[in-house]
Amino acid sequence: MIQTPYLLFLGDAPDQLAAKVAQGIKDWRPDNAVGQLRMEGCKADVGLADMTLAEAKSKGAKTLVIGVANRGGVISKAWKEVLLAALEMGYDIASGLHNLLEDEADLVEKAEERGCALHDVRIPSVAYPIASGVKRSGKRVLAVGTDCSVGKMYTALALDEAMRKRGMKSTFRATGQTGILITGEGVPLDAVVADFMAGAVEYLTPDNDADHWDVIEGQGSLFHVSYSGVTMALVHGGQPDALIVCHEPTRPHMRGLPDYAVPEMADIRDVALTLARVANPGCQVVGIAVNTQHLSDAEATAYLKKVEAEMGLPAVDPFRHGADRLAQALEAL
Amino acid sequence: MIQTPYLLFLGDAPDQLAAKVAQGIKDWRPDNAVGQLRMEGCKADVGLADMTLAEAKSKGAKTLVIGVANRGGVISKAWKEVLLAALEMGYDIASGLHNLLEDEADLVEKAEERGCALHDVRIPSVAYPIASGVKRSGKRVLAVGTDCSVGKMYTALALDEAMRKRGMKSTFRATGQTGILITGEGVPLDAVVADFMAGAVEYLTPDNDADHWDVIEGQGSLFHVSYSGVTMALVHGGQPDALIVCHEPTRPHMRGLPDYAVPEMADIRDVALTLARVANPGCQVVGIAVNTQHLSDAEATAYLKKVEAEMGLPAVDPFRHGADRLAQALEAL
Predict the structure, then answer these.
(1) Does B199 touch chain A if contact means CB atoms closer than 8 Å?
(2) Of A313, A271, A273, which Cα lies nearest the Cα of A290?
(3) Rounded to a whole number, what is the distance in angstroms from the first to the last CA of chain A?
(4) B259 vs A35: CA distance, rounded Å
(5) Which among B190, B223, B237 has CB closest to A278?
(6) What confidence score (pLDDT) does residue A71 get?
(7) For B226-255, what is the mean pLDDT?
(8) Which of A41, A89, B229, B329 is buried most deeply by CB count within 10 Å?
């Protein structure tokens, strides 16, 4: 678990998109961050107060979170100076970079000297068990996609927020690096060893109050041949009571797979439900989340109406319209 | 790739079952082994000539294969003496033990000194790619089970043998430690990191002659919640042209999961075929392999006849009746 609150390190981000991890923290867990630290030439701004390490420290910041992608996969000399200074001041550091903090000898040495933690959220920090399949108390909802990167994390975060607003008990459960940095905990499922994937999901979503919902971030797609095994582990390890089908209607083909057509939502619904019911016979598909970012307002409204009629389920774009109708569907379950 | 031929180390096996890896090598790749090495008190015998390290060396043995499970997960002092002596004489060593050879400092030191290889087949030795999904030449058949440990490896090995006997081009592709030790190569799929599982299966079954078949060893089951993600990666990474459904009809419940009923063969057929056709739209289920070891001859015959009528597919026990009818079904495809 990563200690909050954070100071968000934006470094020398070349544009706003490069800081999407920091933006996600600001959007979804603003209370987790006291401010942002930008270096000279930084072109991103997530709308938090600019602070030095010392200023943020005085506001209580415990962890410097690298909220930006680095260029060329290398931690630059300029970044390194800031990171070493942070450790010197007693900050922990958390990172989802491909190149690991723990592979940087000077950071490791300084962290040991100062008793600080280095969190590389791309790699597991826990020895997960093999899944037992034992029925757990509490309820779980999982976002399943027709493809990768169709908005499953966004849907889960928006749903979690909408459920809390309705007074429901809900916890977003992160299964990828961005989600882990946003919430401070989770399982980097794509980096878990095969035999322990489903066990890692069970570990992430333990017994809970009967009326509590875990909102599990989905990964990949059962129809995406590169990552479907990861999705499968979520469907079985998560024991979901409810599924939300997530879709992006303008894809010419599956992400990264030019020869593969995006499946119909009904295909994902049917196969996901068949497999989910192995672990939880009562599982239901309760709604559809469509990422309509490439449609006009009128197109989006028409498309959602059509999907809703065809599938007989509430269909929303959580970004455009909020996720309250999905939360309502879960409440009604 | 493990160098052949082998000398099979049976150690102080307490019974025949403990030597099942050695037995598998003797049964399926007898040409891979020059003899067996048994220590005092060994209760197993796979029917090969007993040899000392020196005798086997003179017959050309290159690798000492640990063909026996060790007690308590510890490499004993008595075993260690044999292993060190083998390295001293220039043997490589191959092992599927949970406790790794590479974690034994004295073995590592001696292997380095003598320029010998230590093969721990439980862990991957290759940095597998992420699956590309690109269609490969050649044909592939995958064994899919209603449960774990229903005879998928045996079925694949028997099928490979039957296909060769018919003059077909066939290669058994191992995906677990026993299969890897039997054939000298393969992918320990349950130990691969999630993101690379399907890519590891693609790596294992590359482009080949148009009339060549890879016979892929199955793992787990799409309906076994602990390991279904591994199975999923085989279904998509393997791009199978054909599936064989494997079943054991006397199981009271899924292996290790007392609350989970074993699915119907038709359920596995339908969901496996739906998912396999994502990667290979022409995929067909061509036959059923039933492990009838707990049935009498009469019961087995009656059961297979019933299955054959219900499923409309050849149904055999490859151990009792051979796998030729399955090979025939593939040849007819």
Answers:
(1) yes
(2) A313
(3) 32
(4) 50
(5) B223
(6) 74
(7) 97
(8) B229
